[in-house]
Each structure stands twice: as C-alpha cells, then as structure tokens.
Design a protein that fits this description.
Order of helices and strands: HHHHHEHEHEEHEEHHHH
Helix content: 40-55%
Mean pLDDT: 91
Largest sheet: 6 strands, antiparallel
Low-confidence stretches: none
Oligomer: single chain
Number of helices: 12
Shape: globular
C-alpha cells in the first residue's frame, strides 16, 4: 500500500501541538537557578555570535590579493612560532619561505622580497622572518627592509607557554581588533618603533599604571611591539617613502612622546588608547587623512584610531 503524504491540516495540527508543548513546558529548575541557567545560555550565545562575527571579518577583510595564500601563510607561522624567547627553526623558514627565497637567502634577497610585497601597500612581517633577518644581518635595518615609515598592526596575546599555544589562534582569528604602532626604517642605522600603551605595560615607569604612555625602541627582541610567539603576525602598511619625512621621523616621534607624557591622560579601552596616539601622529604628519582615520572599517580594526586626540 503506497505511503500517503500528511495533509496540510495534519501538519498544521502537529505544529499547533508542538507550539503548545513549548509554551507550557516546565523548566527543570526554578527560582534563581533557572534564571542563572538562562543568563549563562544567553552569555554563551552572545560570545558565540561575537566570535563568529570576528572570524568572518578576520577571513574576509585586509586579506590582500590572494586571501587563500595569505591564510596559509598565517597558519604556517602560527604553527611554527616558538614561545619563551626561543628562536624559530631553520625548518620553519624553509617551510614558509624556502620556495621563494631558498634555504640560505642574503640580506639583499630578503629586502627585495619585502619591496615586492610592499607594492600592494600592506604585507606580513612575522616571527619566523625577523628571526632570520637578525641571524643574517644582526639587526633590522635598511639592508633587510626598505627605508620607510610603516604602520604595524598586531593581535594582542600572552607569550608564555602553555597558554600561548591556544591564545595565539584565538587572538588571530576570533578577535578582529588590532593594536597599532609605528615603525621607522631609516637610510642608516637600526629600525626604531614607536609604541603607546598603559604605563604598566612597559614595566619601566613610576607613574600611574593606567596612564597613557609611549616609548621608542630599537626594533629588536626588547621592543614592546616586536613579533613574538603570542603576537607572531604583524600586518605592515607603508605610509611614506619620502627620504625627508623618514629622516625627520625619529625627532618628531620623540617630541610626540614627550607631549603625550606631559598631558598625563588615562588610558581608555576604546579611547584614548595606543591606536588613538598613532592615528593622531599620522594625521598630524599628513600621512593619513582625517576621513581615512575615522572610517568605519578602521574603527573596527583599530578601535580608537579615529577618536579625538589626547
């Protein structure tokens, strides 16, 4: 006997009974326990939606011309990144850069690689590469990275094991916002970085821990913003190749640091923060327009970048 499909009335009746059961279902818990469970479920749902939105943004924006290759590069760097100040291995460099640069590149080869990568405006600088730069050249300077002023953007996270083996993945893909800093590669001498953050993060100040402060470092392992295990991937955007601007940058950044310290402003989670300081410096030097600094996408990527200057 052929099976008959349920009629519309049957489906409607079943649907009505299901809704009646849902509406009159008794929760297994009562009182504050019931509401605690409901609140926990709501919080879990919010976190899941937040993580999903961040993942979509992380995989769909600022991906360059070849998003698939970019993602593969990121995964490889995160996989091979090392913790507790241990250098990355030669095997890591060969796996990530061997096909393009070979297993024994010169400083000139590495600089040529980044000059080509910077043609699109933005490229990745990672822990594996900076370890090789330092091994070959002794430091980060114009011999391995073209002279210029760059803006770096990195995910924030701890460097210590074992937490870093999990947090580095979460920070890279499930948290879309980034911390920005300025990197200057002069025609002569070592590269320097300008970093802003809470006073307590630098570990060398005697002021209020939550004061908005800044430091200038030689760009090496001791710098606040240097590729490390928990922050192994840095998105670099070149904002100026003008020799005059590059030459004047160290003095201008030191002056900006002194002025910031004198204002004695409190660090804000959303603003004013490190991104605010970087945005104000770039706009003040005509390296970023006010419209770009206040764009919605950059507000999501670098919260505080477009806020009022401290």
């Amino acid at each position: 006997m052929p099976m008959q499909r349920p009629s519309f009335e049957t489906i409607k009746d079943r649907g009505g009974r299901f809704k009646h059961r849902v509406r009159h279902a008794r929760h297994p818990l009562t009182g504050w326990k019931k509401w605690a469970v409901i609140a926990g479920q709501g919080l879990a749902g919010f976190v899941a939606i937040f993580a999903a939105c961040n993942l979509v943004l992380s995989l769909s924006t600022f991906r360059g011309e070849n998003p698939v290759a970019r993602t593969g590069h990121e995964i490889a760097v995160l996989w091979f990144s090392t913790a507790d100040d241990s250098p990355t291995s030669a095997r890591a460099f060969d796996a990530i850069y061997g096909r393009e640069l070979g297993d024994n590149p010169t400083a000139a080869d590495i600089r040529a690689h980044f000059e080509q990568a910077a043609d699109g405006g933005t490229f990745l600088l990672d822990q594996v590469m900076v370890d090789r730069m330092q091994a070959i050249n002794g430091r980060i300077d114009h011999r391995v990275l073209a002279p210029g002023i760059y803006v770096g953007a990195k995910a924030l996270g701890p460097d210590g094991a074992p937490a870093v083996w999990v947090t580095k993945w979460l920070a890279q893909y499930l948290l879309f916002p980034r911390h920005a800093y300025i990197l200057v590669v002069p025609e002569e001498g070592p590269a320097i970085s300008f970093s802003a953050s809470q006073e307590s993060k630098f570990g060398d100040g005697d002021g209020a821990p939550d004061r908005l402060s800044a430091r200038i470092f030689q760009f090496d392992d001791e710098a606040y913003d240097f590729p490390s295990s928990g922050e192994s991937l840095h998105e670099m955007t070149i904002v100026s190749r003008d020799p005059a601007v590059i030459a004047a940058a160290p003095v201008a950044l030191e002056q900006a640091r002194i002025e910031l310290e004198a204002k004695n402003r409190t660090y804000g989670l959303l603003a004013p923060n490190s991104n605010t300081v970087v945005g104000c410096i770039l706009e003040g030097a005509d390296l970023m327009s006010a419209e770009v600094r206040r764009s919605i996408l950059l507000a999501l990527r670098a919260p505080g970048l477009g806020a009022a200057c401290p």
